[in-house]
From TrEMBL:
Family indicated by similarity: Belongs to the transaldolase family. Type 3B subfamily.
Phylogenetic lineage: Bacteria, Pseudomonadati, Bacteroidota, Flavobacteriia, Flavobacteriales
Protein name from the UniProt record: Probable transaldolase
Biological pathway: Carbohydrate degradation; pentose phosphate pathway; D-glyceraldehyde 3-phosphate and beta-D-fructose 6-phosphate from D-ribose 5-phosphate and D-xylulose 5-phosphate (non-oxidative stage): step 2/3
One GO MF term: aldehyde-lyase activity
Gene Ontology CC: cytoplasm
Biological function: Transaldolase is important for the balance of metabolites in the pentose-phosphate pathway.
Database matches in InterPro entries: Aldolase_TIM, TAL/FSA, Transaldolase_3B, Transaldolase_3B/F6P_aldolase, Transaldolase_AS, TSA/FSA_arc/bac
Enzyme class, spelled out: transferase
EC number: 2.2.1.2
Length: 218
């Protein structure tokens, strides 16, 4: 399973990259705003800065809601850097734009996916990635992981190449369970990724090894 970090924070992206397990980055307009990145030129420059920090795909979301606007904005984003993936909302216009970019060989990520039917449409349109938001489904007492299972089954039935990018991941068990189900990618915060490192028996065992080594090597 590929690991993407879901942030526009350059320090956190650097930290995840340094760990050696990072395969890409996802951003969205809210994450950009959180970092105080506003204005077209600053936003475009920030995407290039992110691409220069990591080796893999970097999802950059269009803000237009109409088809022509999505195509124009998406082309501008794709021209920025070869690592850019054009992120499009799961709307009629977004699906049409996904088909447009897929026909041109430009990678896409269809976002804000909350049902298996939406994921099926994104795959039919040739999206590179589909982003079901599991955390936001869990937030409203719905089973986010069950949606990943449904999409996995549908994509496997027909051999769709669209990659399931489990998004809105909030914690370590989301990551582990997505891996068990067979999500192709997960995108989550740095805390969820580094949380995978933690186990008290590792800490206790290491403290014992250090103590025993020091006893024997005084
Ligand atoms: C996906 O690409 C989104 O940026 C993201 O995962 C949304 O997560 P949230 O529900 O924690 O905002």
């Amino acid at each position: 399973m590929k690991f993407f970090i879901d942030t526009a924070n350059l320090a956190q992206i650097k930290e995840a990259q340094a760990l050696g397990v990072l395969d890409g980055v996802t951003t969205n307009p809210s994450l950009m705003a959180k970092e105080g990145i506003t204005g077209k030129n600053n936003i475009l420059k920030h995407y290039v800065d992110i691409c220069n920090l990591v080796d893999g795909d970097v999802s950059a979301e269009v803000n237009a809601l109409d088809y022509e606007g999505m195509v124009k904005e998406g082309e501008e984003l794709a021209d920025l850097h070869e690592q850019i993936v054009v992120k499009l909302p799961m709307t009629k216009e977004g699906v049409m734009a996904a088909k447009y970019f897929s026909d041109k060989g430009i990678k896409t990520n269809v976002t804000l996916v909350f049902s298996a039917g939406q994921a099926l449409l994104a795959a039919k349109a040739g999206a590179t990635y589909v982003s079901p938001f599991i955390g936001r489904l869990d937030d409203i007492s719905t089973d986010g992981l069950a949606l990943i299972e449904e999409i996995r089954e549908i994509y496997d039935n027909y051999g769709y190449e669209t990659q399931i990018l489990a998004a809105s991941v909030r914690h370590t068990m989301h990551i582990v369970n997505c891996a068990k189900i067979g999500a192709d990618v997960m995108t989550g915060p740095l805390s969820a990724i580094t949380g995978l490192l933690k186990h008290p028996l590792t800490d206790i065992g290491l403290a014992q090894f250090v103590a025993d080594f020091e006893k024997g090597n005084k």
